[in-house]
Amino acid sequence: xxxxxxxxxxxxxxxxxxxxxxxxxxxxxxxxxxxxxxxxxxxxxxxxxxxxxxxxxxxxxxxxxxxxxxxxxxxxxxxxxxxxxxxxxxxxxxxxxxxxxxxxxxxxxxxxxxxxxxxxxxxxxxxxxxxxxxxxxxxxxxxxxxxxxxxxxxxxxxxxxxxxxxxxxxxxxxxxxxxxxxxxxxxxxxxxxxxxxxxxxxxxxxxxxxxxxxxxxxxxxxxxxxxxxxxxxxxxxxxxxxxx
Length: 244
What we know:
By secondary structure, the protein is of the alpha+beta class. The chain is 25% helix and 26% strand. It has helices at residues 53-66, 78-89, 111-117, 119-126, 137-141, 147-162; strands at 27-31, 38-42, 67-70, 103-106, 168-173, 176-190, 194-200, 209-214, 219-222, 231-238. The chain has a 6-stranded antiparallel beta barrel with strand order 5-6-7-8-9-10. The mean pLDDT is 88.
């Protein structure tokens, strides 16, 4: 008998299911209040863990889909944790495991706690910066993205929530390079004018952010933060199927 696809047994929890550390930035960004544009200069000293936003959002979903943290069990050796991490990131970022098939991490109650206690190990095993550039979605962003397309994407995101998945989206303004970034969406609210998506941004793990879809404009907006001046973005859902 073929079993139906699994679905996550619980909702994504920002306090439990994200990494405790940030994707570091190569550039320091400063907003010019007179022009509204971002000025940049290289961070000094240079970051040690950068260009990994897509690695982090993919890995966060893999841990959510495939790992179970058991804080009431005794911890294991670092080499054992290393093998467990490799098993998780070796599984599909598109399809969740059944609860009975999840990989158990003893001695820690959540991904946030585990990544805090084993930060160097987690960073080393989740993937290199090159994996943020070897994405299928990068081919899509070089082609024009229409407002109809963005309306379809907003509907796809709602469909993903209906299936209890947590969408990963690629934020772009190509051919401009002002933003090329990945975030995880884990909740949504709707009004007559907007869809408000709660998001985990690996660049700022201290608090959730939002991605906003404005129906009348058929356009997504990402709010201002320490590396982005705020405004319109184009959105591509990634790790949705074999194409992306």
